[in-house]
Amino acid sequence: MPLSADAAVEQAELLKNMQESEREQLDVVRQYVRGRQALPAVIPSAAPREVKVMAQIARVNICKIVVDSLTQSMYVDGFRADKESDNALVWGAWQKNRLDARQTGIHRASFTYGTSYAVVLPGDPLPVIRGVSPRMMTAAYGEDPDWPVFALERLSMAPDGSQLWRLYDDTSIYYLGEKTVNTAEGGKARAFTFIEQRDHNMGVTPVVRFVDEDDLDADCDVEAGDSITGVPQHPVLGGQVTPLMPIQDQIDLTTFNLLVAQHYNGFRQRWILGWTADSESEKMKAAASQIWTFDDHPDEVKLGEFSQTELSGYIDSRESSLRHGATLSQTPVHELIGELVNLSAEALTAAEAGKDRKVAERQTLSGEAWEQTLWLTGRLMNVEVPDDAQVRWRDTSARSFAATVDGLGKLTQMLGIPPQELWHMVPGTTPQDIENWKLAAQNGDSFAFLADMLQRQGAPTGDPAPING
Fold it and tell me: Cα 38 to the chain's mean position, in Å?
């Protein structure tokens, strides 16, 4: 039965506390994936301004490349159920919600943070399906790992400055407001107020969880102690970004050292011992000429120069870290360092074999979540989606188109599989393409039958009978 107003507020406060404990770590991950992570901790606070500027531009972000590479390999192109009519109805809701494009946001969030959510709500005329980041939603699970007991979502800010929230359970949706109030002690605090309740009558909490990987020990992780005072620890979270944070920090530090060496010692610098500029203008002119001056021995003027620093070691070190990051993330090396020279289709396929295995694992996990989402959608539409229904993923691997079509042709010729059953395996096809092909095939058979019938009717039936005169 639905919660009372007080019970809904109490449950929302519990979930909000959970969200606040997670949000700090999720925000750190967000900074890394956007290339706004903290500057290297070895830079002293009293460093010159140009050093701090170099530290800011030294952030060479590989985390976003890894997340984007995986996201761009994950596209749901179709949905297959037993009944074509039911399939078309449920897929119509997918299209109405523009999930061909919006699915990427759900995938990207799950790969970035380790978790993301899809919410299915009643709508007119079709259900509404939306993706939600874990920075905006917290779900509490009980014995059933598929459906949460409660879920709390942060919504937009109201005109009066209050924060809107939405609490979900297996019967209803509860709308709550949160704003600052005065406490009895004279301080300020944030408090929930109940707004309204709407029944959805789906029997389950209409929130589906997408995960980056299935880790049975994820809830048992313990954060390691930090022996270096003042250096923040990396978050203990799932997803693609957290394991890459140490490598990202190494790349940032190496790039910073490269920029410093390049700026100060990447060229020959002259020095004058026993002379300094008398005026500011002469000093600026000498600085522009990269001349160092010393007045230790004014009676004896000497000239000389420093040799330039060799930068190849820094460049090699950074490339080594990039290769290490590619290995850890199962991302093809050429996507991180940009080396792709005269590779054949077979060599490119071999280079991306690790990524293909990684994508296949995520397609299995996300595929089950999408099937769960479409099951909820069918329930709201009074359409039964069977347990063996499957989503169809677009083939984005590096295999050549000709090799794929040749393999499909051999399946038809050697194993006798009907060609129509293999159409969905042609790279780049959509459900609309397949329907058009089926219609064209049916029309083609009809036209062939009609042409054959007309040919038979127009053909002579035999020699004419002789005429007796």
Answer: 22
Q: Considering Cα of 436, then 441, then 447, then 450, what sign does the dihedral take?
A: negative
Helices 353-380 & 84-96, crossing angle to 10 degrees?
A: 100
Partners of 76 in the beta sheet?
393
- Tokens standing for 338? 């940009």
Q: Residue 279 corresponds to which tokens in the numbers above? A: 């005026």
Taking the C-alpha atoms of residue 110 and residue 300, their distance in angstroms, rounded to an integer, is 69
> In the chain, what is the greatest distance between 2 CA atoms, to the nearest angstrom?
147
pTM of the model: 0.77
Q: Do 319 and 333 touch, CB atoms closer than 8 A?
A: no
End-to-end CA distance of the chain: 102
- Percent of the residues in the chain that have a pLDDT greater than 70, as a whole number: 74
CA distances to 277, 403, 408, 449 from 419, rounded to whole Å, are: 86, 16, 8, 20
Amino acid in position 321 = S
CA dist 251 to 60, 104, 296, Å?
A: 7, 28, 40
Is the distance from CB of 187 to CB of 8 less than 8 angstroms? no
> Residue type for 109, please?
A
Tokens read off for 170:
């297996």
115-121 and 207-211 strand pairing: antiparallel
| Spatial distance between the Cα atoms of 194 and 3, rounded to a whole number of angstroms | 11
Question: Is residue 298 a contact partner of residue 275, using CB atoms and an 8 Å limit?
Answer: yes
Q: How many residues does the chain have?
A: 469
Backbone phi and psi for residue 393, each to the nearest 5 degrees, phi listed first: -95, 145
Each residue of 214-259: pLDDT tens digit?
888 776 665 555 555 555 667 767 889 999 999 999 999 999 888 8
How many CA atoms does the CB half-sphere of 446 hold within 13 Å? 6
Contacts 24+ apart (CB under 8 A), 11-17: 11/150, 11/152, 11/167, 12/152, 12/165, 12/167, 12/174, 12/176, 12/192, 13/192, 14/140, 15/138, 15/140, 15/150, 15/151, 15/152, 15/167, 16/138, 16/152, 16/165
The total of other beta-carbon atoms located within 10 Å of residue 334's CB is 15
Q: What is the pLDDT of residues 390-404, one digit of tens each?
A: 888 887 776 656 677
